[in-house]
User: What shape does this take?
Amino acid sequence: MTQLDYAALSDGKPVKIAVDGVAVCVVRVGDEVFAINDTCSHSDASLSEGEVSGFKIECWLHGAEFDLRTGDALTPPATSAVAKYDVTNDGALVTIHAAAAKK
Ligand code: FES
Assistant: This one.
């Protein structure tokens, strides 16, 4: 697992962190925090460099969108989900848990 300060997360601004050596994209949406694998399932771009809109993040390279809540691919060219990580947030500290549930 990896922890970071909740206060360091800006709404809708992705942050790339390492969780047990894996790049993970962490996004705060309102007062919720989501974490998905940072590597786009289409062609290896970094999703944390993409644009967030509501609960979606758009890959900067070819425009595939993923659901931050589930990791699901929502639009082509990506056709498979990225792993989603469980997050706990006590309002001060955000914990990204290592067990990714790949769909
Ligand atoms: S690398 Fe992300 S959509 Fe192509």
